[in-house]
Specification:
This protein is mainly α. It folds into 3 domains: 58 residues, no CATH class; 96 residues, DNA polymerase, domain 1 (Orthogonal Bundle), CATH 1.10.150; 155 residues, Orthogonal Bundle (hpI Integrase, Chain A), CATH 1.10.443. Helices cover 54% and strands 7% of the residues. It has 17 helices and 6 strands. The strands form 2 sheets. A 3-stranded antiparallel β-sheet has the order 1-2-3. A 3-stranded antiparallel β-sheet has the order 4-5-6. A hairpin with a 4-residue loop joins strand 1 and strand 2. Helix 4 packs antiparallel against helix 5, helix 9 crosses helix 13 and helix 10 packs antiparallel against helix 12.
Length: 357
């Protein structure tokens, strides 16, 4: 006599995909990652619905509640997510932001690239952060990199590539606070003394010196200037203008315009070409940065990077012309960002102390 068919569906494990599932009336119901609490809870609810309402209602109930993950999500790895992001979304960001995003993606791929995106949780997220600490990255930079990874996961949620629960779980991991970690604290950028600027400028080559000077006259970021082409510069007015299509905040819908005075125009003329799409300066951003660092060593001054030139301009304009003028030239989205460069608060504190005496 044949064994009677069991009315209770058996919880099965698909080892090749590390997922839990069961079969009801010939339909495969994916419950979630194998051994996970979510899969166990989904299986329990399925059995309850089967006993109370029957198979058809039970299957639709599981799908409606979202307890069972889509099969495509279980097969979708972090490598798949990163590939889609780099291909479809990354080109919208500036070169500098692309570099930071790729750095975060690289370490996440090294540790958990083959992991299902649906199983990417807080513990793995913390392990990635530990890897960044071991690399010697600063605490503030690590927090920014983790924020970028969260953003990529949310982007995946928007395309139904990653379950919403993954993004919610990652948001529960707090950023590193001061003293929470052995990661070094980044040194705040400050305006470089004028004597140091002159010493470094004296030992730079002509090309590097011209870039150096234009940055001090515009307050632009290194990548913004080095990405310029002849066709991007509007030379019709007294002050030349360049509308940038890709910059640090272009993905947020912000605009960015560079302005060139007469002195800066005389430098730019040396590099204008007949081809409107040809870059003015045929040099990479990191190459220019290394040239400035070498010049610092040769001149015997404390090392600084090209981005510090922007801080020099910001500090000078904020103190001499006010926050609004500096904000317009620098392209800051908020007034609070520009006020970070002002030395007026320090001077007011000194005056207050004198009055107390």
């Amino acid at each position: 006599m044949a064994r009677p068919k069991s009315l209770v569906p058996r919880l099965c494990i698909d080892k090749s995909r590390n997922r839990a599932f069961c079969k009801v009336d010939g339909k495969f119901i994916v419950l979630g990652p194998a051994g996970s609490p979510a899969a166990q809870a989904a299986y329990g609810r399925l059995l309850t619905d089967l006993a109370q309402h029957g198979s058809e209602t039970a299957v639709s109930s599981v799908k409606r509640r979202g307890s069972a993950l889509r099969e495509s999500q279980l097969d979708f790895t972090l490598n798949d997510l990163f590939l889609r992001f780099v291909t479809e979304e990354l080109p919208r960001y500036s070169k500098a932001e692309q570099f930071c995003l790729k750095s975060a993606i690289k370490i996440a791929r090294e540790l958990y690239g083959e992991t299902s995106a649906a199983e990417f949780g807080p513990l793995r997220f913390r392990t990635i952060r530990d890897g960044m600490i071991r690399k010697g990255w600063s605490r503030s930079f690590i927090n920014k990199e983790m924020k970028r990874l969260r953003m990529i996961v949310r982007w995946g949620v928007g395309w139904e590539l990653v379950p919403q629960t993954v993004a919610d779980a990652l948001s529960a991991v707090k950023s590193l606070g001061y003293g929470d970690t052995d990661a070094p604290e980044s040194k705040p950028r400050q305006a470089v003394p004028e004597s140091d600027l002159l010493a470094v400028r004296a030992v730079l080559s002509e090309l590097h010196r011209d870039i150096f000077d234009v940055m001090l006259m515009t307050g632009c970021r290194p990548g913004e200037l080095l990405g310029l082409t002849t066709g991007m510069i509007d030379r019709s007015g007294e002050i030349w203008r360049a509308e940038l299509t890709k910059h640090k905040t272009s993905h947020q819908g912000k605009s960015r315009t560079l302005h060139f005075n007469v002195t800066a125009q005389s430098i730019l003329r040396k590099y204008l070409t007949a081809n409107p799409d040809e870059r003015l300066y045929k040099i990479r951003r990191d190459s220019f940065g290394n040239a400035v660092k070498r010049a610092c060593l040769k001149a015997g001054v404390p090392k600084f990077t090209p981005h510090w030139l922007r801080h020099c301009v910001a500090t000078r304009l904020t103190d001499e012309m006010g926050t609004e003028a500096a904000q317009r030239l620098l392209g800051h989205a908020s007034r609070a960002m520009t006020e970070n460069y002002s030395r007026a608060a320090e001077r007011q504190a000194i005056e207050a102390v004198k009055r107390l005496g």
